[in-house]
Write a structure and sequence with these properties.
Layout lengths: L1 H42 L9 E6 L1 H7 L6 H14 L4 E4 L11 H11 L5 E5 L1 E2 L8 H10 L4 E4 L13 E2 L4 H6 L3 E3 L2 E3 L5 E10 L2 E4 L1 H10 L3 E4 L3 E5 L4 E5 L1 E3 L2 E5 L13 E4 H12 L15 E6 L9 E4 L2 E5 H14 L4 E2 L2 H21 L2 H24 L2 E2 L3 H33 L5 H9 L7 E14 L2 H7 L2 H21 L2 E7 L2 E6 L8 H25 L7 E16 L4 E6 L1 H16 L3 E4 H7 L3 E9 L8 E9 L3
Parallel strand pairs: 1-16, 1-17, 2-3, 2-17, 3-7, 5-11, 20-21, 25-27
Antiparallel strand pairs: 4-6, 8-9, 9-10, 9-15, 11-12, 12-13, 14-15, 18-19, 22-24, 22-25, 23-24, 25-26, 27-29, 28-29
């Protein structure tokens, strides 16, 4: 059983390791993104976006007031005309990609393109795609795109992070639009496998050239910083007034960052939003000498993003984010710039940290369960789970993302493993105790106690049993010739040989009595043929003694003879002693008779005597000589005793 327990512990260890990695992989893919959303939403409830960034959105209100979509490009021009001529906004971010011409009114396109060509503070978006480039004049377009980059990015990344992205093309702009627009930045957002946007592409390696995000491009214009340094972990920039240290994750030719979201009041926007219809109507009012809807002072020194988000074809621009499932796309661009200006970024912990974190809480919970009392251990693990939850909130509040669900799961997993380990260990300890106690008690008695552990008490029952008593002849004289150590060694060898024989014949060793052995057959091991079992056991014991005699003779040790007495009858079998200490034994006239019968071996120079009752049950299986009727001390009647010469049919 020891080997079995060792195998069980090894199996538990390997199973735990296997489950550990399976759960970890599943948790990273399924559970942790959800916990990320939860913690971001909880810890950004009071995170207010910058008042210096505003949104002008073509929304449902705009379509209702100014006509159905699509609009003439002159409508866009009116928005920009208002911002440029009637406000003191510092910058304009244009979150729109113009690829299709206005076939009905080409003049509208031409006027709009010329208009934006005069706006230096306007930066527009460009999208990169995995689809092949559709325009035949690809090289010309790429040249123009790079010219609209307008910032310098020094690449100090290691070689493994300098790979080119998988993007094969970018937005197929109208040619005149691309020629006239002065600044272009990427508006690519990085959607995770569950459909949520948590990251944004900051720098894209497109065909060997580095292109910034729209937010990063606008940050450059906002701060006057034109030189950026890209390393394996950070994007760095600095001048006398501003400093940037953006945590970067390099993957597949893209350097992206985690978006730090702000509180949303309506699930759509986290920045102040103004309807495009209010802007255009204010422009009309100013031109007509009327009071405009908007006070132009609200735009003073602000950065304005222009975009669309309405229930119309090609206008609906909502994204799933940790803070809202209906977050406006233009607000993501505004949020990115807000993050960059204010150096507000989530910093990811490394994979190694996350694994070590899980291992640490697993080991802590495992040790708690293995070392503490069960109620205290459970309470301690519950406190550990609660403390880790508080720790995760603290880390997210300080813009550091760590795993939440996996450590909690692995605390529970550790509890299960620890309880199983504890169970196996206690089982092994229990068996060790049983094995050790079996050296003092019969293994069968021990098994009976263990199987009925809740009913162990003083008392027992009367039962029909067969008692075997075996004694060494002339042991006193032998002891006088040998040292105590030599006597002990001979006795130990003798008893070691006798005990397995008794157990083999379904008997239990009741006790050692000096140099004598007392064995019981029929209880607690149920055996209807207990008398025959006792007789065959005695026969085997005598044969074994002959073998030992030959061995001892070769070793120069004295010749030892034994006598055996067997009696069958009723006896009390059970526990005697006190409530504090019990002894399982057999008591009664049958036991005394067996001992007295064994003594007659000395009188009649025999080795193997049995009582009348025993003979009656085994007479078909033994060849005997009837000795005579003998008196047994304590018994009024004489009894017949028989010498067993040999066994028959056994």
């Amino acid at each position: 059983m020891k080997i079995s327990h060792n195998k069980s512990l090894i199996l538990l260890a390997f199973s735990s390791i296997l489950i550990f990695f399976i759960v970890y992989i599943i948790g990273i893919a399924i559970f942790e993104p959800k916990s990320y959303n939860f913690l971001v939403k909880m810890t950004t409830q009071n995170a207010k976006s910058s008042d210096d960034i505003m949104l002008i959105v073509i929304d449902d209100k705009s379509l209702h007031k100014l006509g159905r979509w699509p609009w003439k490009r002159t409508r866009y021009g009116e928005i920009f005309e208002y911002i440029v001529n009637h406000t003191k906004a510092k910058q304009i971010g244009y979150d729109a990609i113009i690829v299709a011409p206005d076939l009905e009114d080409p003049k509208s396109d031409n006027d709009f393109f010329k208009q934006i060509g005069k706006i230096d503070k306007l930066s527009a978006g460009v999208g990169f795609s995995n689809m092949p480039f559709k325009n035949s004049n690809e090289k010309f377009y790429e040249k123009l795109l790079f010219e609209k980059n307008n910032i310098q990015i020094e690449d100090k990344r290691s070689k493994k992070n300098k790979q080119i992205s998988n993007y094969k093309s970018f937005s197929s702009f109208q040619k005149d639009y691309l020629i006239n627009i002065k600044n272009l930045g990427s508006v690519n957002t990085n959607m995770d496998s569950d459909g949520y946007i948590r990251k944004i592409d900051q720098i894209i390696n497109y065909k060997g050239k580095l292109y910034p995000s729209l937010g990063l491009l606008m940050y450059s214009k906002h701060t006057g910083i034109n030189h950026f340094v890209l390393t394996d972990k950070y994007l760095l920039a600095k001048n006398n007034k501003y400093s940037l240290k953006m945590p970067i994750i390099n993957k597949n030719g893209v350097a992206y960052s985690n978006i730090y979201f702000y509180k949303t009041d309506d699930e759509l926007y986290s920045h102040q939003k103004i309807s495009a219809s209010d802007v255009i109507e204010s422009l009309y009012a100013i031109k007509n000498g009327e009071k405009p809807i908007l006070d132009s002072s609200i735009f003073k020194d602000k950065i304005v993003f222009v975009g669309a988000n309405a229930n119309a074809q090609a206008l609906q621009d909502i994204k799933r984010t940790p803070v809202s499932d209906t977050f406006s796309g233009v607000d993501i661009q505004a949020t990115n710039l807000d993050n960059i200006i204010n150096n507000e970024f989530y910093r990811n912990t490394s994979d190694l940290y996350n694994i070590l974190n899980v291992v640490l809480v697993f080991i802590t919970a495992f040790v708690l369960i293995c070392t503490l009392p069960i109620p205290v251990a459970i309470l301690s693990c519950a406190c550990l789970m609660f403390m880790y939850l508080i720790f995760a909130f603290f880390m997210y509040s300080n813009k550091v993302t760590i795993n939440l669900i996996l450590p909690e799961i692995f605390i529970l997993f550790a509890m299960g493993c620890a309880y199983l380990y504890r169970y196996l260990l206690e089982g092994r300890k229990k068996e060790k105790i049983q094995s050790a106690m079996g050296k003092y008690l019969s293994k069968d008695v021990m098994k009976n106690v263990v199987d009925n552990i809740d009913s162990v008490k003083l008392g027992g029952k009367r039962a029909n049993v067969t008692v075997l008593f075996a004694d060494i002849r002339g042991f006193t004289s032998i002891s006088e010739k040998l040292s105590a150590e030599e006597v002990t060694k001979i006795l130990n060898e003798y008893f070691t040989a006798m005990v397995p024989i008794i157990e083999e014949h379904k008997g239990i060793l009741n006790k050692f009595m000096g140099d004598a052995v007392l064995a019981v057959f029929g209880e607690p091991i149920k055996n209807n043929n207990h008398a025959l079992s006792a007789v065959t056991c005695a026969n085997s014991m005598l044969k074994k003694v002959k073998q030992l005699q030959e061995k001892w003779l070769e070793e120069g040790k004295p010749k030892i003879e034994i006598g055996v007495g067997i009696c069958t009858g009723e006896a009390f079998v059970g526990n005697i002693g006190s409530e504090e200490r019990l002894e399982y034994t057999v008591i009664g006239d049958t036991v005394n008779t067996a001992s007295r019968i064994e003594n007659y071996n000395k009188v009649y120079r025999t080795k193997f005597l049995i009582s009348q009752e025993t003979f009656e049950q085994v007479q078909k299986h033994v060849d005997v000589i009837k000795i005579r009727e003998v008196s047994i001390r304590g018994k009024a009647k004489k009894i017949n005793i028989y010498e067993v010469l040999r066994l028959l049919n056994v």
